[in-house]
């Protein structure tokens, strides 16, 4: 973690499924749109099948009744083990790191979210309010784990 990054969220789960299945459910829109209630659609530059480090996309999300279009970039991409996605907003850069590890036929899935605030106002606000994002993220990633266990 770089000095100006603020750690905002952590999630970890053991999933009773092969790592390739877990990664597909995490990364392919045919699955993501079924478990992630915030994402309306993703629009890729090129094909979703050709993702690699440096690939960019627009994600259309509905959060709190408002629709947002965010520009995203795969900063690192090593399927099925690791992906880092960054999106930039007026608040700063949000960086989400996904890590998967296969262990005894199960997949260890971890997510960490960081914010690189664009100014001191957003830094202060995030320090005071980061507890508020945990339930929102928990809901999505618990739905992800449930989706794999019930649908796959």
How does the SSE layout of this entry go?
Elements: E1 6-15, H1 19-27, H2 29-35, E2 39-44, E3 56-63, E4 66-78, E5 82-89, E6 92-103, E7 106-117, H3 120-151
Antiparallel strand pairs: 1-7, 2-3, 3-4, 4-5, 5-6, 6-7
Helix pairs in contact: 1-2
Q: Keywords for this structure?
A:
single chain; alpha+beta; Alpha-D-Glucose-1,6-Bisphosphate, Chain A, domain 4; 152 residues; 7-stranded antiparallel sheet
Give structural notes.
With 152 residues, the protein is an alpha+beta fold. The protein is built from three helices and seven strands. The mean pLDDT is 93. Belongs to the AHA1 family. Pfam families: AHSA1. It comes from Oceanobacillus luteolus.
The gist of it:
The protein has a domain of 104 residues: 2-Layer Sandwich (Alpha-D-Glucose-1,6-Bisphosphate, Chain A, domain 4), CATH 3.30.530.
């Amino acid at each position: 973690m770089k000095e100006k990054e603020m750690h905002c969220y952590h999630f970890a789960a053991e999933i009773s499924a092969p790592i390739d299945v877990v990664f597909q459910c995490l990364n392919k829109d045919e699955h993501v749109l079924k478990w992630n209630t915030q994402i309306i659609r993703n629009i890729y530059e090129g094909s979703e099948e050709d993702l690699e480090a440096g690939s960019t996309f627009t994600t259309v999300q509905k959060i709190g009744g408002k629709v947002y279009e965010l520009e995203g970039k795969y900063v690192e991409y090593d399927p099925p083990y690791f992906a880092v996605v960054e999106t930039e907003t007026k608040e700063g850069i949000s960086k989400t790191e996904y890590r998967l590890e296969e262990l005894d036929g199960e997949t260890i899935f971890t997510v960490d979210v960081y914010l690189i605030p664009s100014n001191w106002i957003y830094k202060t606000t995030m320090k005071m309010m980061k507890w508020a994002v945990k339930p929102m993220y928990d809901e999505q990633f618990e739905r992800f784990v449930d989706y794999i266990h019930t649908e796959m």
